[in-house]
């Protein structure tokens, strides 16, 4: 029997679920079939004003709530998320397409992040500075205020938790607009917060026309911080809006991650982890390995090993346990990937695997490997955000680093080498917010996640993720 998408969708404002009422709706699609499966109500300007008023009230109450009480809500939310894992991950796959195993991994990581923030929110310390006897100066860190958060569809559970958890731990209120395309997962996450006892006004969740919502929320003097996960062009547009009220910003934008593979790496191990990581979530990951720069001595073996492993991947409906890669999330993505692949082969790249749509009816694109891709190819310069591996050769370490730093992006980079001194140099010289050496894992709850250059600024996760929701004050007492 086909799995059912059975979550009632609504806006969550002031502790109430709202739907109907003549609001416009958006059809949430199943990427594996292209069929509509639920109608999502879209917020009116009136709804947004109610959300702003609720967030203003919520902030006043929540900032005065003891940190251990805030932490207890986050801990309970993590527990509910784990208890409801089957239901929530099914919804995530049905609306986003990723395979069930990945949705379950995403949920587990989101629950762990909630646990981290539950504890870290209780460690917001200030400083007392020595002054002449009887006097002192203090440095205080206080919650910044109501947050407006916007996030993308690629991690429908984690992206939402990454916005809510640090804001709530720090004592802020928040209005979140997750992606309309993956609304069900967001609604389920909000229900966990609600059932864990989060007071109604602290977190609001709205959906609608993204441009209209961001303009309205960012123009309001109530909003004190913008937190965005999405593309570079939209990020730049939102930064301009945020400038008018001088609000704080955390921008987690796109990337174009280089992978430097040196002659001295453990080739089979490197190939095994890179192929799996490349095609995770059909390549729709901001830190996805994208440009594979491989040293001359192992290039041919790397390319044939990569292509062979890629051709063996099974693509299909994410609900099918046999699938190793699901469809892309929406009809825009296979369209964009087909264009980038056509451009690269037209400029002389060699197609080693995939290259076309696959599956029937849904938004599929085959896992694709292109070899000897010229630097002028569009895909070598624009974020593909899809299942395409771009392979090129390099000679020296200096050439590889120069190429890694060539683009305006600076989110993640991967290096594979057994040479310890080189590992240190690469960590120093590559311009990226996260560098993984002989591993592909760079997201841990306790370490900062974020980029530099056009990939954005500020960090999520780790103590830095909480610090990004605080303002600093100096108080001098005589
Ligand atoms: P897009 O930029 O149109 O939308 C990305 C997300 O941003 C959407 O989910 C939407 O909720 C939000 N958004 C869009 N316009 C907005 C606005 N004016 N105000 C507030 N929120 C807004 O792109 P897309 O076609 O959905 O995805 C493709 C591109 O998005 C990729 O090239 C990639 O760079 C980027 N992307 C990045 C991430 C990431 O994790 N950094 C995630 C998903 C998508």
Largest sheet: 7 strands, mixed
Helix content: 25-40%
Q: How many structurally independent domains?
A: 2
**Total helix count?**
14
| CATH class placement of the largest domain | Alpha Beta
CATH fold type of the largest domain: Aldehyde Dehydrogenase, Chain A, domain 1
Pairing-aware structural class of the strands and helices?
alpha/beta
Low-confidence stretches at least 5 residues in length (pLDDT < 50)? none
Going by CATH, what is the homologous superfamily of the largest domain?
Answer: Aldehyde Dehydrogenase, Chain A, domain 1
Average pLDDT value?
Answer: 97
Strand residue percentage: 15-25%
Distance between the termini: 74 Å
Give the names of the bound compounds: nicotinamide-adenine-dinucleotide
For the record, the CATH architecture of the largest domain stands as 3-Layer(aba) Sandwich
| Rg, nearest Å | 23 Å
Keywords: Oxidoreductase
Protein name: NAD-dependent succinate-semialdehyde dehydrogenase
Domain Aldehyde dehydrogenase: 17-475
GO molecular function, one term: oxidoreductase activity
Any key phrases for this structure?
single chain, alpha/beta, Aldehyde Dehydrogenase, Chain A, domain 1, Aldehyde Dehydrogenase, Chain A, domain 2, 2 domains, seven-stranded mixed sheet, six-stranded mixed sheet, binds nicotinamide-adenine-dinucleotide, Aldehyde_DH_Superfamily, Ald_DH/histidinol_DH, oxidoreductase activity
